[in-house]
């Protein structure tokens, strides 16, 4: 089981969006058994499922039109201090676990969750506030990486552009994060507008869903590139697929 934590000290930078896009595609289209753990006190992902997705599932079930399974991946709300207790219980049931954490890194529980992950994905943007948040967060990740190497543990971290638009500021951010030593994925989420209507039921690689949210075919290429690169970089090898 590979554990992927999506984290950044800056709120509103696209953590939940990134998890939703990746979890939906990896489970529905790539065949991985995926669990999403919502450990963020804002409960964005749990709220999307409960408020937006579950009512439509209930209506379809009542009408006898529900295609099982109703959701491509499991989603659980777990307190920060109980994350790994829960993962120990289900370690044989899933290939990939995504953990959504709060936008802070100044407590022991957060450090423990990050340290237990195999991969940390850091959504990055180009504003000054995002840059400052990335600096302090990088220092923490580099220290976790150093300790993990000393203990022979599998730990990697990567920056991911969560709303790339090819502005000059983003080129500056690339150079800035490279200088800091933040490895980054080349793939990114460019067309952020089409990702605002989040759903935990559908993958953006599903043509019918893309049409429903007004996303064109380029979104498929974008999501597939992101999944393929994550699979390669995080070593989500084929033997993990059920």
Describe the structure.
The protein has a 6-stranded parallel beta sheet with strand order 3-2-4-1-5-6, with helices on both faces. The chain has helices at 15-28, 44-63, 83-89, 108-116, 128-150, 168-180, 207-212, 217-233; strands at 2-6, 34-38, 74-77, 96-100, 119-124, 156-161. 45% of the residues lie in helices and 13% in strands. By secondary structure, the protein is an alpha/beta fold. The model has no long low-confidence stretch (mean pLDDT 86). Helix 1 crosses helix 8. The chain is globular, with a radius of gyration of 17 Å. Residues 4-175 form the CobQ/CobB/MinD/ParA nucleotide binding domain. Pfam families: CbiA. InterPro entries: CobQ/CobB/MinD/ParA_Nub-bd_dom, DNA_Partitioning_ATPase, P-loop_NTPase. This is ParA family protein.
Brief summary of the model shown:
The protein has 242 residues and is of the alpha/beta class.
Task: Sum up the structure in keywords.
alpha/beta; 45% helix; single chain; P-loop_NTPase; DNA_Partitioning_ATPase; 8 helices; 242 residues
Query: What is the terminal-to-terminal distance?
Result: 12 Å
Helix vs. strand class: alpha/beta
What is the helix content?
40-55%
Overall shape: it is: globular
Which strand order spans the largest sheet, edge to edge or round the barrel?
3-2-4-1-5-6
Count of DSSP E strands? 6
Unreliable runs: none
User: Which whole number gives the mean pLDDT?
Assistant: 86
What is the overall number of helices? 8
Radius of gyration: 17 Å
**What is the N-to-C order of secondary-structure elements (H for helix, E for strand)?**
EHEHEHEHEHEHHH
Strand content: 5-15%
Largest sheet: 6 strands, parallel
């Amino acid at each position: 089981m590979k554990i992927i934590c999506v984290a950044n000290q800056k709120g509103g930078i696209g953590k939940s969006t990134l998890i939703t896009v990746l979890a939906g595609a990896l489970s529905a289209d790539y065949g991985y058994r995926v669990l999403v753990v919502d450990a963020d006190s804002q409960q964005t992902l749990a709220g999307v499922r409960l408020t937006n997705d579950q009512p439509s599932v209930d209506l379809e079930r009542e009408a006898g039109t529900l295609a099982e399974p109703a959701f491509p991946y499991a989603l659980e709300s777990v307190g920060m201090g109980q994350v790994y207790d829960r993962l120990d219980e289900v370690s044989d049931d899933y290939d990939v676990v995504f953990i959504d954490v709060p936008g802070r890194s100044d407590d022991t529980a957060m450090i423990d969750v990050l340290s237990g992950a195999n991969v940390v994905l850091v959504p990055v943007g180009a504003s000054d506030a995002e840059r400052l948040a990335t600096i302090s967060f990088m220092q923490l990740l580099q220290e976790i990486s150093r300790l993990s190497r000393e203990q022979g543990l599998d730990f990697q971290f990567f920056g991911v552009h969560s709303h790339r638009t090819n502005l000059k500021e983003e080129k500056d951010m690339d150079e800035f994060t490279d200088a800091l030593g933040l490895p980054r994925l080349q793939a990114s989420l460019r067309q952020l507008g089409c990702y605002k209507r989040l759903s935990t039921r559908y993958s953006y690689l599903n043509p019918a869903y893309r049409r429903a949210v007004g996303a064109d075919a380029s979104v498929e290429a974008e999501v597939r590139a992101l999944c393929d690169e994550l699979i390669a970089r995080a070593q989500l090898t084929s033997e993990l697929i059920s």
